[in-house]
Amino acid sequence: MASMPADRSPDSTLALLREGYRFIGDRCDRYGTDIFQTRLLLEPTICLRGRPAAAIFYDPERFVRAGAAPKRMQRTLTGVGGVQGLDGAAHHDRKAMFMSIMTPSAVRQLGQLFDDEWRARVPAWERAGRVVLHDEVAPLLTRAVCAWAGVPLADTEVARRTAVMRSMIEGPTALGPRHWRGRVGRRRSERWLGEVVERARVGVLPAPPGSALGAIAEHRDGRGQLLPRRIAAVELLNVLRPTVAVDRFVVFAALALHDHPQWRDQVRGDDDATECFVQEVRRYYPFFPVAAARVRRSFDWQGHHFPQGRRVLLDLYGTNHHEALWPEPERFRPERFAGWRGDPYALVPQGGGEHLTGHRCAGEWITIELLKRAVTNLTTTMRYEVPPQDLAIDLRRMPALPPSGLVIADVRRTA
Ligand code: HEM
Q1: Residue 81 needs a FRET pair 20 to 30 A away by CA distance; which of 47, 241, 340, 385 works?
Q2: What keywords tag this UniProt record (predicted)?
C-alpha cells in the first residue's frame, strides 16, 4: 500500500480557515499528488481533488453523507435532517421530490420571474446614480423564488428575509457574531417556513400545482408519512436560500463582463455563447470550496487505503481549476465550453455525479438559467459604468466576493 502524504500539523482547521480555497490545492501541488491526509476539527481527514477522485467520491457504494457535515455548517447553511445528510433509499426518495420541481418549464418560469423583477428595478438604479449589485440582486431573487415556490412574501418582508438568508450562507465559515447571526437566521427561517407548510397542509394557503411548496408539503416518504413540519421547512429553505445565493454568481458574472469586455458583444443575442460564458463563470470563480462525505466500507484506491468511517473532502474549487482537466485553468476562457459535451466529474462547482441518484446540486439548472438571464440583462437591457473600486477576490475568504460587492453607476435602460 502506498503511503499517503500527510500534513505534519496536529490539526489544520485554522490553516483551512486562513488559506481558504487553495488549502487543498496548494498541498496537492506541494506533495505532487491529488490525495493527502490531514486532521480537521481534530479528526483524520483525507483530501482529494481531480476527476478520478470526483468519480469515486460520487459513488454511493463507497461514500455516505450521514455524519459528514460539521455541526456549525448544519446549524447555519444546510439545516439538520435535510436531503444533504441522507443516504440510500431515504436520499433517493427525498431527492426525487426536489427533482420533480425542476422541470424545464418550471426552471424557465423562475427565470422569467427574475427577469421581470430585474427589469422593474432598473428605473430605481437609474435614479440612484450608483448601486451595489450584490445588494440589489439578492432581493430580486428572494421575490422571484418566493413567488415561484408558492411562499407568500409581503413587500415589507423582502429586505429582512433576504438578509437572514444571506446570514445563513456566510455562517459556516464565520466566527463570532456573524456565525451566530447565521444560526439565529436559520431558526427563524425554519419557524417561518414551518408555518407556511402547515397552512398549505390545512388548505388555508393553497400551494400552486407543481410548486416547491406543494411538492414539499404534500411529499410522503417510503412509509407514506408526510415530512415532519421542521424537516419540510428545512427542505423548503433548501430551495429558497441557495436561489438567493445565486446573487454571488451574478456578481462574478458582472465582474467577468467588466474584466473581459469583448464577451459583452459575444454573448449579446447568442444563447450558446451566453451558456459558455455562464459555465466558465461557474468553473472559474470561487463558491463552494469542498464537499464532505464518509467512507461507507473500507476500500483501496490507487494504492491508498480508505478506512470505514474516515471523513473525506473533495476539493470542488481545485477540481474546477485542475490542469489535467482545464488547460490554462487560471485564465477565464468561456470558449473552452464551445461544443462541450458535459462531464459530471470535471465541472463540479455544484457537486458532481448524478442529480437523481447522488448528491449533485438539485438547483444546477436553475442556477444556469438565472445566470443566463442576468448576463442578458447586463448586456442588452441596460448599460452602466463600473467606477474604480476594490474588485480583488481574496481566495482566503470563504465564501469569496469582491469587497465592493460590485458598484455600478450611471445605469441607463437600453431596451
Ligand atoms: C448558488 C449557486 C449554487 C451553488 C454554488 C450550489 C452548490 C451546491 C453544492 C456544492 C452542493 C453539494 C454537493 C455535494 O454534497 O456533493 C449542493 C447541493 C444542493 N443544492 Fe445547490 N448550489 C447552488 C444553487 C442551488 C439552488 C438554486 C438550489 C435549489 C433551488 C439548490 C439546491 C440544492 C440541494 C437541495 C442540494 C442537496 C442535494 C443532495 O444532497 O442530494 N442549490 N449545491
Answers
A1: 47
A2: Heme, Iron, Metal-binding
- ipTM for the whole complex: 0.99
How many of the other CB atoms lie within 10 Å of CB of 32? 7
- Separation between Cα atoms, residue 379 and residue 373, nearest integer Å: 10
Assess whether pLDDT exceeds 90 at residue 160.
yes
Residue in the structure block whose three cell numbers are 440589489: 136
Answer whether 362 contacts ligand 1 (Cβ < 6 A).
Answer: yes
Domain-embedded: residue 86: yes
Cα–ligand 1 centroid distance for 58 (angstroms): 14
pLDDT at 180: 85
The pLDDT of residue 79 is 84
361 marked as binding residue? yes
Total of domains in the chain: 1
What secondary structure letter does DSSP report for 268? T
Q: Which residues contact 324 (CB under 8 A, 6 or more apart)?
A: 50, 51
Residue 400 in contact with ligand 1 by CB distance below 6 A: no
Does 140 map to a domain? yes
